[in-house]
Amino acid sequence: MVRWWAEWNIKDVAAPQVYRKAESPADMNTRADRDMRLHAMSFEPEEAYTKATDG
Known about the structure:
With 55 residues, the protein is mainly α. It has helices at 2-9, 28-40, 47-54. The longest helix has 13 residues, at 28-40. The protein is rod-shaped and about 65 Å long. The two termini are 35 Å apart.
């Protein structure tokens, strides 16, 4: 789409390079294992932590 738009508006110009920077998703298994171990030690996380990690 960008190439087409650039060629349509500006003749004989190379299309710009377009890319997106994306973060890799968090490893859910690691987080779940950690939370299970903490729960086994009777640790109750704060509500803010639960909302931030679980939504």
